[in-house]
Write the structure tokens for this entry.
Amino acid sequence: MQKRSLRQKREARWGYLFVAPFIIGFVVFMLGPMLFSFIGSFTDYNLTSKMNFIGLGNFRRMFLEDQLFWKSLYNTLYFTIFNVPMTTVFSIFLAVILNQKLKGIRVFRTIFFLPLILSGVAVYILWMQLLSPSSGMVNTILSWFSIKGPSWLFDPNWTKPALIMMKLWSAGGAMLLYIATLQNVPTQLYESAELDGANTWHKFRHVTLPMITPIIFYDVITSTIGSFQIFQEAYVMTNNGQGGPANSLLFFNLHMWNKAFVGFDMGYAMAMSMTLFVIVSILTIINLKLAPRWVHYAGGNQ
Amino acid sequence: MAVEPQTMSSERYHGPLSTRYSDNTAITLAQKKRRKINARTLLSYLLLSGVSLVLLMPLLWMFFTSLKPMSEIVQFPPTFFPKSIQWENYLTAINAFPFWSYAKNTIIIAGFVVISNVLSNSFIAYGFAKLEFPGKRFLFALVLSTMMVPGFVTMIPQYVIFSKIGWVGTYLPLIVPSFFGNAFNIFLMRQFYLSIGDELIEAAKMDGANHLYIWSHLMIPLTKPALITIAINSFNGAWNDFLGPLIYIKDQNQYKLQIGLQVFKNQSTTEWHYLMAGAVMVLLPSILLFFFAQKYFIEGMDLTAGSKG
């Protein structure tokens, strides 16, 4: 007995050694910074000369005085509300039509995945051209149907729909998860549904959909967090983060960025980052609370 | 009302009703069913091709635009296929900014990120998958919870830390954090380790090997597919990373391609043929990597997906 616990102790020591990099990284790059942000959000820190406690000053300024804060929050919520359901439905759609036993399906799979692995400045520049009012692809195609397309990135009413369209092209990341799950759905379920006279829609609605709800749940949580973080697209597509026409692309993180790295108003920016953390946490908790109502786990309700 | 066995088999899905029909009717029903299947296959192909076309259009448009003279781009409506092909656009784009030197910088950063990601995540995940120690469940929950923290929450204080220790303006802030693992890759590696039996480890321990040896000499070769997956995804991520260099790189000579392309974009706002040529050049490594290593991109995702639900 004594000998075994000694062995266990040795193994535990090895265990801590192996996970040590994670613990160190967590403390240095996550926990520490978050504590610093928390404390810093109550100060007028500007990186160089001062760090005085100003109580809730930053938050008062944010909620009561900074019109752009509300604008950025509105823009971000607008984007999130459209982006999350649309990308989720699109990913499921792609996964379902890919999940067929057909000749050459691998070719389609390759094509469907290609946009997902492309990211960064090149993609944003590509879309700036596609959305160009006179020479872009989108309006050219619309003109084939005698539709006069909008000015997209130059019209405050169309900037966000333009971005949502762009993200839809490259945001089927969860498609892979859906395909993997679809392949695990027992075929007997479909066979017995067919025996009951189910058509394609019935089979999707009553067999496929319940089986993939855990993945939908995961997808909705991660893409909500992701949508709230939209930054690069807006930064690159609005000339170094100026926010676009009528600030219609000034998203939460872009506003925070401008406060932190243009104005070096670090205290205020950290207060914004804490607000972001609280908002994202609330959204995650809401998702978790709502989950039991519609998420179906194989083998009983949990 | 004897029904031939083969008719039965093709009739299986029609249920009890089909047995009431005569043989002839049953055959026509089977044919109908087959025709219906053919129509559905055709419909599936149409749908798949339509969606593929929509997804590929932006990339085709980018490539065709990169070959056009400006006159074809500004005419209304613009041409779809270029009438006259100008490969020189690529030379102009490459010479418009220090393309090759930025590409070199990008590869250096990506190289370090790939190595550190492969080593750290493999190392950390071994502890979570193969060793027992108090607090393991809690620590692993902590790993997963870091996925839920938005990067922007820690971005500013991280910048403050890096600026205080004098790392701003160097590549270190872009590389060093990847030595400490990240949740997604730890999770992926752990799944892979769990699929490997413990007998090998037990046998090696009998022979007096310690865990460091087992990890470096037994586990690394065995987990090669997962390591390649991490390497490829890390390379793609580092190649396309824009935010990191935007914050930390100040000197023009140290720019990454992403920043170089962004500066080029700001200088030549509507010279779309050059901009598209530049975009093609920057996207090309990702596209090639995807075509040659698609298996690993997909396996990485499947591996994590299999454990959920």
User: Anything to note?
Assistant: The domain at 88-306 of chain B is CATH 1.10.3720.10 (MetI-like fold).
